Amino acid sequence: MRRLRVHLYLLTVAIFLASSCDKPLDITAENSAANLTPLELANLSKSADTKAGNNLSFPVIWSDGVVKSLRGTYGDPVFGGLYFTADNYNWYVQNDPLNEWQAQSVNAVTEGFETPVEVTTIDWGDNLESKAWPFGSQIRVETVLYKTLTTPMTAFTMQMEDPTQSGLTEVWGTNGVTYDSYEATVYSGTAKLVIQKLLKDREDSTLTTTWDPTRSAWTGDIGTPLFESGVWNAVDGPTAYSAEINVQGKVIYGYNWVTRKTASGAGDYRITFVLDPSSPTVYNTDFGANTTILPREEGEEVVILEEPDLAGGVARLDAQNNITYIDVRLTLKNGSGKPGGGKGKGEGGGGGGGKPDHAGNGGQVGGGQGNH
Hints:
By secondary structure, the protein is mostly beta strands. The longest helix has 10 residues, at about 10-20. The chain is built from 3 helices and 22 strands. Strands 1, 2, 4, 5, 7, 8, 10, 11, 16, 17, 19 and 22 form a 12-stranded mixed β-sheet that branches. It is globular. Helix content is about 5%, strand content about 35%.
């Protein structure tokens, strides 16, 4: 049985209080980790007063030479803050200013890495692949690029405090043990997200669309972009498209799609991730002949075949144009599938998650806070 505990090194606290005008973590007898729920611990560890984002736990390749600032110093971790105890280890939690660590990263342009960097696998959020969503929902759109390595990079062992939690109540930490990872995430400064509404059902055999690389958008049986933004636009806030370090310590691309604001009713929407050669960043990243889409994780909810209108999207890849896309269905609020009167019961109410990589658990790369 897991038992939460709080451990603060007195000397570290004294230094922190003397050097910071920010309010320190409120660790009292009444507010000890042993008495906190997972949500309370998560909120404490990423309190706005701490000004601390997530630490990098999984290696990253800065494929285009755009290097983002990270918390801590590689090779010199500091563990003096909140932790929970499990499997005979103390696991030091994310978002705490007294816990800092940094996995290995490499600048592919300046450090002799193979160029261009070819992505090995692409991982879309399982929430997009598992089901349709009601129009009006807030949907988390996440994409992660991975590269298989021949020479390993250093990663930190991570564990979740309570596997039954998800989203804002997740608490992750490291025991400080490193390992050799033969996989790394890839960050490209050319990444862009485009959302367009299909003018026909996604199953319609007559649906015709063509990617226009000069416009970075689809043409044909599809509307003009309802949202399009590259990571280089550097817009802060929950509605921006950006890279962030999630609570697990991985660099991911994320966007909170508020469909009531950036969609035009029920229907099918194409979400496209493109490595845009027209971006201001010098292009150095490719999807190649060997790039694949990572299958949906085992155990995720699957919509039964009797309700095909409520099925999730299928991620696809066009390596020639360096794009990957997924057609996501938004249902009517009363639960029917297609806007033309599809059958089946929809999911009621809003929602925003899928994988445990939610906006509330991430901080923009560069040490931003993890409470968007």
